[in-house]
Amino acid sequence: MADNAVSGETTSKQALVVEGGAMRGIFAAGVLDAFLANDYLPWDFTVGVSAGSTNLIGYLAGDFGRNYRVITDHACRPEFINWRRFLRGGHLCDVRWLWQQSFADVWLNLERFHQQAIPLWVATTAINSGEPRYYQIDRNNLHDVFTASCSIPIAFRDFPQIEGEPMTDGGIADSIPVRWAYEQGARDITVVLSKPQGFRKKPGRFPGLIRPLIGKHPALYEAVRTRPDRYNDTLDFIDNPPEDCRVRVIAPPEDFPVGRLTTDADKLDKGYRQGMQTGSDYLAAAGLEKPLPQAC
Question: C-alpha angle 16/69/175, rounded to 5°?
């Protein structure tokens, strides 16, 4: 199901929004594990983008430590990130392999996910229009939707299809779907970012360089070119939400060491621990904190 209001209504009040960011998703993995350790799942619905979406299904399935294992193991293998393959015309980041192999190797409690009551929505970008599409995850679409949402243009050279429509990284059209959550009726929104607060996206230095790579898809090119403006507009919404809405932000600290393609084990572990601590601090401020277990 795409582009429909949550449960057909606009009555949901509390939402969790999780940004993507490839390997920077290790921070959200830590935050969500801190939530799991405290049985904290108060949401009427959740929405994620790219790595944020795959983090969310592990969280909603109740699988503590799963996201940590996938990011620090499978996502660090050459089958996923491979510069030599990319220079030879292949994928830099083979997201289809990553999703399928980690799904096969690392337990994901899908029955628990489908039985629990919190919907998971995932953002993608439509190639032909450059516009966002939002899909509620169900038993039939999860493989296609997660692969599409994580498909970084150029780095992944395919455009996965959902219901016959080619898609790519949801972060192109809507990196942080907080405004969409508001439009679905959420008035208490928690946002997990993948960069420290205060960050603003700068215009691309050489936008013309990407035109030959995606020039056959003018709407996608325009979406990529104008992404910084939309991203910063979303940050403005987060900083100054409507009067009837509260937006709470969970963001990495200034010394967060993980970049989009970081595979250094120590940096990833530090980023995860920072996420666990920040999530714990968030709960402590609300009087909900419990002792945190160790990651698996």
Answer: 35
